[in-house]
Amino acid sequence: MTKFATYRADGAERIGVVQNGRMFDLAAAAGRAGISEAPLGSMLELIDAGERGLELARRLLDDHAGSEDLSLALEGVELLAPVPVPRQMRDGMSFPTHIRQSPVGMRKIMAAGDATVLAEIEAQPLPPLAEVYRRQPIYYITNRFIVGAPNSTVRWPRYSRVMDYELEFGLFLGRSGKDLSAAAARHHIFGFTIFNDFSARDQQAKEMPGWLGPQKGKSFDGGNVIGPWIVTPDEIGDPYALKMEARVNGEVWSSSTSEGMLFSFEEMIAYMSRDETLRAGEFIGSGTVGNGCGLEHGRYLRHGDTVELEVERIGILRNRVERQD
Predict the structure, then answer these.
(1) Residue 209 — pLDDT band, cuts 50, 70, 90?
(2) Which of 80, 114, 144 is the last residue of a domain?
(3) Where are the alpha helices (DSSP H) in 111-257?
(4) Domain boundary among 55, 80, 105
(5) Which end of the chain is more exposed for a tag (fewer CB within 10 A), N or C?
(6) Handedness of CA 223, 104, 101, 91 (dihedral sign)
(7) Do 73 and 157 lie in a common domain?
(8) Residue 162: helix, strand or coil by DSSP?
């Protein structure tokens, strides 16, 4: 149907529809239409309203899209994450090339300064994909309270010297459910967005041998950046054939596609929902696409860099990174 966004205007959080370079204010349109009990106070309210909320949004857009006083020029809008505090955040490991190349990059970080060890790592063939990744979806639960906004400045954690971006996309659930089949899971997808899973790689390298996944390597304020908006499935078409690109200061660092996921989002949702209720408003990330981060290239971010992640049919997620010291 459309692109739903959360933004700040006059000090208040609002939700709108992005259309023709403008942000259409859904709550203001509901007020114009005399609808006082509209579920438009936040993106989570809209998601919770289900088809009723989507139908209301469609009607308001059809009836009032031509009213310029109900919209703002997009370039002047302060975008927030589409759901500033998701009900849950899960991020997958879905792309084989990234899974195979990342451990090599981690070993190089840990061997930094040791030319002999680095040469040995370079000489070794790329390891095969571990069978565990084919048996079931692999994912971790990340901090839902550290979501950053489009165009925000990501503050480099003081304990890290190696900062990285990660080119991902993901979805928000539109319905709750438990023990879902993959076929049923398709109807639980509210829409798709872009995810930059910023990572403090040197810290992550210290943590991963502990077998419990990333902690401070990925958990710092503003480090989970989502946006710029949510695009409903009808506008996406095939989510597994999207062009994806990462640029740093305008230079292409990563170019890939969403093809080749070991498990589809529908299969991931089905697995995650086994004996566990998934909630509307949860975010699920794809994991990093192949060649989709500096770790795979041995190339990392510097103070003042601007990172742009672009995903076909969704848009561009842009952030600046700055050291705090």
Answers:
(1) confident
(2) 80
(3) 115-123, 132-135, 182-185, 201-207, 233-236
(4) 80
(5) C
(6) negative
(7) no
(8) coil
On whether the pTM is more than 0.90, the answer is yes
Burial label, 210 (beta-carbon count in 10 A; 0-12, 13-18, 19+): exposed
**CB 4, CB 76: distance < 8 Å:** no
CATH number at residue 171: 3.90.850.10
What is the distance between the alpha carbons of residues 284 and 93, in angstroms, rounded to a whole number? Answer: 11
Distance, in Å, from the CA atom of 157 to the CA atom of 154, rounded to the nearest integer, reads 9
Q: Residue 254's pLDDT band (boundaries 50, 70, 90)?
A: very high
Are 91 and 142 in contact, with CB atoms under 8 Å apart?
A: yes
Closest C-alpha to 143, from 224, 212, 229: 224
Q: Distance between terminal CA atoms of the chain?
A: 45
User: Of 133, 171, 172, whose CA–CA distance to 260 is shortest?
Assistant: 133
Residue numbers of the domain that contains 70: 3-80
Amino acid identity, residue 268? M
CA neighbor of 93 nearest in space, from 147, 146, 130: 130
**What is the number of structural domains in the chain?**
2
pLDDT in tens, 25-67: 999 999 999 998 889 999 999 999 999 999 999 999 999 988 9
Distance CA(7)–CA(15), nearest Å, equals 6
176 DSSP 8-state letter: -
Which pair of tokens denotes residue 223?
């480090």
Q: Which helix (H) or strand (E) holds 192?
A: strand 189-197
Query: Would you state the structure tokens that stand for residue 157, as one six-digit string?
Result: 């954690």
Cα–Cα nearest to 265, from 238, 290, 284, 237 = 284
* Same domain (yes/no): 112, 249: yes
Structure tokens at 252: 């292409």
Closest CA to 289 of 134, 127, 95: 95
Q: What gap in Å lies between CA 278 and CA 319, rounded to an integer?
A: 30
